[in-house]
Amino acid sequence: xxxxxxxxxxxxxxxxxxxxxxxxxxxxxxxxxxxxxxxxxxxxxxxxxxxxxxxxxxxxxxxxxxxxxxxxxxxxxxxxxxxxxxxxxxxxxxxxxxxxxxxxxxxxxxxxxxxxxxxxxxxxxxxxxxxxxxxxxxxxxxxxxxxxxxxxxxxxxxxxxxxxxxxxxxxxxxxxxxxxxxxxxxxxxxxxxxxxxxxxxxxxxxxxxxxxxxxxxxxxxxxxxxxxxxxxxxxxxxxxxxxxxxxxxxxxxxxxxxxxxxxxxxxxxxxxxxxxxxxxxxxxxxxxxxxxxxxxxxxxxxxxxxxxxxxxxxxxxxxxxxxxxxxxxxxxxxxxxxxxxxxxxxxxxxxxxxxxxxxxxxxxxxxxxxxxxxxxxxxxxxxxxxxxxxxxxxxxxxxxxxxxxxxxxxxxxxxxxxxxxxxxxxxxxxxxxxxxxxxxxxxxxxxxxxxxxxxxxxxxxxxxxxxxxxxxxxxxxxxxxxxxxxxxxxxxxxxxxxxxxxxxxxxxxxxxxxxxxxxxxxxxxxxxxxxxxxxxxxxxxxxxxxxxxxxxxxxxxxxxxxxxxxxxxxxxxxxxxxxxxxxxxxxxxxxxxxxxxxxxxxxxxxxxxxxxxxxxxxxxxxx
Length: 623
Ligand code: ADP
Ligand code: MG
Description:
This protein is α+β, with helices and mostly antiparallel strands. It has 4 domains: 2-215 and 226-232, 2-Layer Sandwich (Heat Shock Protein 90), CATH 3.30.565; 239-372, Ribosomal Protein S5, domain 2 (2-Layer Sandwich); 407-486, Rossmann fold; 496-546 and 554-621, Four Helix Bundle (Hemerythrin (Met), subunit A) (Up-down Bundle), CATH 1.20.120.790. Helices cover 35% and strands 19% of the residues. It is built from 20 helices and 23 strands. The strands form 4 sheets. It has a 9-stranded mixed sheet with strand order 1-6-5-4-7-3-2-8-9. Strands 16-15-18-17-20-19 form a 6-stranded mixed sheet. A 5-stranded mixed sheet has the order 10-11-14-12-13, with helices on both faces. Helix 9 packs across helix 14 (469-475) and helix 19 (588-602) crosses helix 20 (610-622). The structure holds adenosine-5'-diphosphate and magnesium ion. Adenosine-5'-diphosphate (ADP) binds at residues 34, 38-39, 42, 80, 82-85, 93-94, 126-129, 174.
């Protein structure tokens, strides 16, 4: 071979290959599923690219995956006439650059209690190709990119290095030959291979072909001069195109598995054929468990779009909003033009309509589960609640459909189980707001001094501590005409008696408040009396229109400019410490600083200068 270059596997990939080579995993057969799935992707891509560049595919070429074996050489070859790869694509896709899932997959393998791990998940992590080294001690891949002349051969024994060399290939596509280890010769048997294809690749909607047996003569011997022909060994029909009544639960589940690599059955299966002006079929699955990459917002591949059974894209952004990125499924439209480009997709009105209805279906189903199967819904919320919350911010149009799905922790429940409806149902007669607090952690929220008066009055407060909660609260000004109000912001409503009492205390303490304000003029906007507190001497509140301490903290953590606004210090006139404050005391300013720092601390904030706080407290303790 000319031009052979030797490359070293990227370190993480090398480690992954070691795991594969030494794997004791019992279902090594999944390598075949991975290769067929890659071939199927490659064929989808070729078909799609050919929509805009007809030279990439001639009309008479049948797109298929072909599997052949050679018992003498101990090899199995999986061939496709898909898009193929150019030199740089090989480098990028296999061996040189680790996918983000590489490490995560290894961690997942190691965290399994049984030391062999569930290798079957490999496809979910985007490194399925490497599973071939569970059964092969050498792998040869020959590939030619559609539209290019030059073909390349990639070869490796999985031990640290691989080679790439120039070669020839008659047509575009990829062939992968596995030199099987001696103990893996079962993969040379047709019946075994057919069984595996049946089990895992049933739903690949293109033909998978194997060599049938040669025609026999009357005596049962192969007929002279006649060769065996290739036969299609899978059904190759699109499951979603079949009527609902003819698809069994098992078939739905195995189709879901082929899309998600999730071994558990889905929470819900939503299969609809829509007729009329806009004709399409949608088959959507709500999973039970979050995938490992739920937080990777860049790579959304949940929904596949087909036009009359031809795969168009799995760039799902156009088909599901971000906050439903965990939904898996297929949408097949009869009305879209085949040559839709990404740009057209983004602005296409039919696509927008289809997306809108699909979203509605999912939200309706979640609503149904929440109502009919509250325990199941609770499980779902644990997995996906944080993501659903994004929906309130992201999808204004569906806000009213999403809000009833929300669940919160509250002063009545440490788990996120309280719906707004439930909260509203428990509100005090004269309570006219839904109260909440946002904080860095559940513990900080629960322990906040701001809750003291609410606890005394028996008013429930929602405790919010997920990062998304600040945005959620801002996007949710009211529920059922009751405003949502942060307990850390603005004034608290008082009864007439309380007002009168406060006026009197205000009078009595006016010079103290003034003096505190003067002492803390660099840190606070104002100092005033509070009736929020029963046990603590002081707390910090944000002005009604200021962002608040928690949001500022989150924005800083995200590296964004946070508009620093000064808080208001509220003091508890009934607290011994406040009562004792003596404006003529020579340490008055120190007391003021300690009060301020304590108030910040009790909210879970970090002091700007903890050392001087400690010094200050010690100084006062000694006095
Ligand atoms: P994934 O399929 O999740 O991307 P794999 O490890 O299975 O991860 O494959 C890695 C990449 O190698 C694929 O994304 C694709 O770019 C390339 N590849 C693998 N098999 C083929 C094939 N038969 N034809 C074209 N490209 C392929
Ligand atoms: Mg793959």
